[in-house]
Write a structure and sequence with these properties.
- It is built from 9 helices and no strands.
- The chain is flat.
- Helix content is 81%, strand content 0%.
- By secondary structure, it is an all-alpha fold.
Length: 231
Amino acid sequence: MFDIMTVFESFIEILKVVPKTLFLALIILVLSFTLGAMITYIQSLNIPVVKQVIGVLQSFLRGTPNVVLLYLVYYSLPLVLAWFLGLFNVTFDPTSLNSTAIVIVTFSICYSVFQSEIIRGALHSLDKDQIEAAQSLGYSTTQVLRKVIIPQVMVEALPDTMNAFLIIIKALSLAFLVTVVDIFAQARLVGAQSFSYLEAFVAAAFVYWGICVLLTYVIDKLENRMRRGYA
């Protein structure tokens, strides 16, 4: 029978891994945003072969499920690292690679494609008249970037970027497949210990929901503040 007290106890146990899950998601968000910015910049250069290669890579990442990519990286990255380090006569044991590192690499690459789209969209929303006005006032390139372009891009990109953060948090539930414990994995472990899987997953759902509500509130406040500050 469904036990509300077990839900509460599971909720407390699951909360213990929330900081780790959020920290992991934050690392992935920063890395994917950095990679996305690099992709956007390289694409803006319009280098023929490079542009086509990036296009194929983006298509592959969009069309391949995260779970497949996770297993691909899980089995290939240690071997690639061992081969690469072997070129410099550095011994590396493929089995010693931490699973958390594999999760970070996988999801950073996966979501860099979406982050590049977010950055490109934010750049396209820029008012070019403001840039020209700043240049006519004698602003240097650095000043135009710091005072005109970056503030506008951040305001435009913030909602989508933070949505990506929420998506990453939920996507980390796949990390359990390579033994990394996040919110979902903790719920499974708690459920297995008490044979109360329903209560554990109900508790996990409330944890995910609570994180979503809290982050959405913070993001809305931050976005409004940035828009007022820039207006």
